[in-house]
Amino acid sequence: MRKVVLVTGASSGIGLALCKRLLAEDDELHLCLACRNMCKAEAVRADLLASHPTAEVTTVQVDVSNLQSVFRASKELKQIFERLRLLWLVSNAQDNPLKKLKKSHTFVFSLRKVLHMFSTAEGLLTQEDKITGDGLQEVFETNVFGHFILFRELESLLCHSDHPSRLIWTSSRNARKSNFSLEDFQHCKGHEPYSSSKYATDLLSVALNRNFSQQGLYSSVVCPGTVLTNLTYGILPPFTWTLLMPFIWLLRFFAHAFTLTPYNGTEALVWLFHQKPESLNPLTKYMSATTGFGNNYVIPQKMDLDEDTAEKFYQSLLELEKHIRATVQKSDDQS
Ligand SMILES: NC(=O)c1ccc[n+]([C@@H]2O[C@H](COP(=O)([O-])OP(=O)(O)OC[C@H]3O[C@@H](n4cnc5c(N)ncnc54)[C@H](OP(=O)(O)O)[C@@H]3O)[C@@H](O)[C@H]2O)c1
């Protein structure tokens, strides 16, 4: 039976590079591209099938910042994969909240600070967030809650104690405890929604492992490093990155977080593909890294979190889910 891998945000950047690398490893794979833009998804599908004709590639439309869309896509996925076992769900999609450089930023010429700043974006950016049609913070819904609901809807496909399945979250080095609060987990009041949402995915991954590993579902977190994609081109235009490139190549001898290409950025994801999920530490984040000479490797790093907070956050998400489902039910009853 073919292995099935579902990737959100597969139309560009790291998600697309992951699909290509996974097919290069196993061209019998069944890839499911979960994308919000079907024109892009179909173009990617045609491209992947042209280079890997023995693979099976399906597409499904989903906008993870719209819960109706997530429910509709889940229904479609349950029909498609009724008899197949979904092995991997890679939660990768994210909108681009990183709009501009902080205007008041003053550069401090300490190599350590510059390396840290460029590899985590900490202190470099202002971020924008807004309320979605579901009444949730957009960055939180896109990066965390939309994917959480997708997982909850597909739970029956993923949880089989006889054959383990995987859930992988594309997190970031930018996930910081100081930017997250259990009382304001949607980050309505703060100015770092991206960092908060990535810390939330780290917590959620730990809680999901604790609650579902007995049922054969294992969750892991990766960081792709700093990769030039639409996300980073939203911070600085491509020509600025090109101008900065000699400096970045030099930095790469000191900080291996500058993976730069989507291919390099998927190193940790592809590495995870080859590991037995039971052997992984749920409290570890797996970071893609590239040396100054261009060699890729994976750095395991203990996450700065505790299991108690992770469980409390998970319970808060379950509460929010209950509330959302009741609202959806009420509006269905009325229509
Ligand atoms: N690039 C980096 O340096 C970096 C560093 C750390 C972590 N990451 C993480 O890596 C992941 C991939 O980012 P990337 O750099 O590859 O960015 P990207 O090239 O902008 O790709 C983002 C993908 O998400 C999709 N997407 C956006 N909003 C969506 C929505 N509401 N519903 C469904 N799909 C949606 C996009 O689809 P469209 O094609 O329709 O826009 C696109 O396929 C993200 O989780 C990001 O936070 C990236």
From TrEMBL:
InterPro entries registered for this protein in UniProt: 3KSR/17beta-HSD, NAD(P)-bd_dom_sf, SDR_fam
Keyword Disulfide bond tagged: no
Pfam families, alphabetized: adh_short
Alphabetic keyword roster: Endoplasmic reticulum, Glycoprotein, Lipid biosynthesis, Lipid metabolism, Membrane, NAD, NADP, Oxidoreductase, Steroid biosynthesis, Transmembrane, Transmembrane helix
Record GO biological process: androgen metabolic process; cholesterol biosynthetic process; estrogen biosynthetic process
Compartment(s): Endoplasmic reticulum membrane
Superkingdom per UniProt: Eukaryota
Enzyme Commission number: 1.1.1.210, 1.1.1.270, 1.1.1.62
Alphabetical list of Gene3D superfamilies matching this protein: NAD(P)-binding Rossmann-like Domain (3.40.50.720)
GO MF entries: 3-beta-hydroxysteroid 3-dehydrogenase (NADP+) activity; 5-alpha-androstane-3-beta,17-beta-diol dehydrogenase (NADP+) activity; estradiol 17-beta-dehydrogenase [NAD(P)+] activity
Catalytic reaction(s) noted: 5alpha-androstane-3beta,17beta-diol + NADP(+) = 17beta-hydroxy-5alpha-androstan-3-one + NADPH + H(+); 3-dehydro-4alpha-methylzymosterol + NADPH + H(+) = 4alpha-methylzymosterol + NADP(+); zymosterone + NADPH + H(+) = zymosterol + NADP(+); 4alpha-methyl-5alpha-cholest-8-en-3-one + NADPH + H(+) = 4alpha-methyl-5alpha-cholest-8-en-3beta-ol + NADP(+)
Similarity remark: Belongs to the short-chain dehydrogenases/reductases (SDR) family. ERG27 subfamily.
Protein name according to UniProt: 3-keto-steroid reductase/17-beta-hydroxysteroid dehydrogenase 7
